[in-house]
Each structure stands twice: as C-alpha cells, then as structure tokens.
Amino acid sequence: MEKKKYSSYAEIERDLEILKLEKEINYQKLVLSFQKTKESITPQNLVNGFVSSYTDYVKKSYPEILQSIIPFIINWFINKKRGS
C-alpha cells in the first residue's frame, strides 16, 4: 500500500472526516443486519422455514418415495389375497 503524502492539514482533516463517515456507515449497516437477523429468528419464522423446507423436500422426492413404496404395497395386496 502506497503511503499518501499530504501537503496541508486540511487534506488530513478531510480524509479523517471521510474515514469517520465510512466507519459510521459500516456501523449502521452492522446494526441493521443484526436487527434483521434478530427479527428472522423468531419461533414462528423458524417453524415456517422448517415446514417449507420439509415440504419442498417431500415434493422433490415424491417420485422416489412412490417408486420405493409401490412394490411393498403390491406385495402386501398379493399376500393378502393368498391369505398369508
């Protein structure tokens, strides 16, 4: 990193003011992010997230579930008709 050379105190003060404002902006972004995270971690949001991810998983794997269950159901019906 190249060192900056200042020719006056006014330039130093201006850069310090810019750094101070950048620091305040970053702090406010952090506070906002924390508030959003805190709001999203409520019992209702956690349950909704779990339920939605579970239903998405079931919807996506529905064909695989059917393919694995259908042979068992067929065998159960065949065995039931035989009286076993």
3D structure, described in words:
Pfam families: DUF6327. InterPro entries: DUF6327 (IPR046290). This is DUF6327 family protein. With 84 residues, this protein is mainly alpha-helical. It has two helices and no strands. The protein is rod-shaped, with a radius of gyration of 31 Å.
Mean pLDDT: 85
Number of helices: 2
Shape annotation:
rod-shaped
**Alpha-carbon distance between the termini?**
83 Å
Record field, number of beta strands: 0
Q: What percent of residues adopt helix (DSSP H or I)? A: over 70%
Strand content: under 5%
Output the helix-strand order.
HH
The low-confidence runs, each spanning 5 or more residues with pLDDT under 50, are none
Radius of gyration: 31 Å
The helix/strand class is mainly alpha
Give the biggest beta sheet: none
Give the helix/strand layout.
Elements: H1 9-40, H2 43-82
Q: Which short descriptors sum up this protein?
A:
84 residues, mainly alpha, 2 helices
Provide a brief overview of the structure.
With 84 residues, this protein is mostly helical. Helix content is 86%, strand content 0%. It is built from two helices and no strands.
